[in-house]
Write a structure and sequence with these properties.
single chain, binds flavin-adenine dinucleotide, Butyryl-CoA Dehydrogenase, subunit A, domain 2, 2 domains, mainly alpha, Butyryl-CoA Dehydrogenase, subunit A, domain 3
Length: 219
């Protein structure tokens, strides 16, 4: 397990933070019972506790005191990953909704012929395209401007924020287009609806992304 921990208290508010590798089986390190989560059921998530847990100094990952910087580095790349994951989820909602809307008939017609449904699909398609574009743009900035460039920091936060909020709207509309069936686990959109919420939380919440974007605007 790789963790970050305060390794020394100092005048600075945060203290010294280091990244530390803790091997499974280290006395005092306990992996508690897994959480019962709203979504992401196939991701194994547990509370971890550390009670008088000691590891040799060689277990420090990188430089002692460099943990905060390492953490920020992981988060920046992770934002593009969550954006990409969100684009995939939103695209899956669009694909499932298009198929369902063409198959499902009401009042003697496929529901895809109703303008109310067409507008939902049109909005979804537009937002998926925009989310994909900004995700690629952030990935390009990572590649060509570098992970510590202000351009990348801004685009990574924008991509994560926009794509995760797009995917949430997409799952909501996908369930709506599926009607009552959208609430049933037999249809994949029910799981998409449960799985999407964490995209607005992990790797920095939507509020934190807005703070970062505002900071890049010099506010
Ligand atoms: C399934 C899952 C897996 C996870 N996996 C990992 C992992 O592998 N590694 C890891 O390190 N973490 C992991 N996390 C933790 C995750 O990164 C945090 O939950 C997330 O960053 C939010 O932090 P928090 O839960 O402490 O919320 P809080 O920081 O308590 O936030 C609560 C609310 O307050 C808002 N808020 C907080 N600060 C501010 C502020 N300054 N201004 C405005 N609003 C603010 C937040 O936006 C949010 O709405 C995981 C979480 C989940 C749900």
């Amino acid at each position: 397990m790789t963790i970050t921990a305060v390794t020394a208290r100092s005048e600075a508010a945060r203290g010294e933070i280091s990244a530390i590798m803790v091997p499974q089986g280290t006395p005092g390190y306990t992996v508690e019972k897994s959480y019962r989560k709203l979504g992401w059921h196939s991701s194994d998530t547990h509370p971890l506790t550390f009670q008088d847990c000691r590891v040799p100094e060689g277990s420090v990952l990188g430089k002692r005191g460099g943990g905060y910087r390492q953490f920020l580095h992981t988060l920046a790349g992770g934002r593009v990953a969550i954006a990409a994951l969100s684009v995939g989820l939103a695209q899956a909602c669009l694909d499932a909704s298009l198929t369902y809307a063409r198959e499902r008939k009401q009042f003697g017609k496929p529901i895809s012929s109703f303008q109310a449904i067409q507008f939902k699909l049109a909005d979804m398609a537009m937002e998926v395209e925009l989310a994909r574009t900004i995700t690629y743009k952030a990935a390009c900035a990572y590649e060509y401007s570098g992970e510590s460039s202000p351009e990348f920091r801004k685009l990574a936060a924008m991509a994560k924020l926009y794509a995760s909020e797009t995917s949430k709207r997409a799952t909501d509309q996908a369930v709506q287009i599926h009607g009552g069936n959208g609430f049933m686990e037999e249809y994949p959109v029910a799981r998409y609806y449960r799985d999407v919420k964490v995209n607005e939380i992990g790797e920095g919440t939507s509020e934190v992304q807005r703070i970062l974007i505002a900071r890049e605007l010099g506010l």
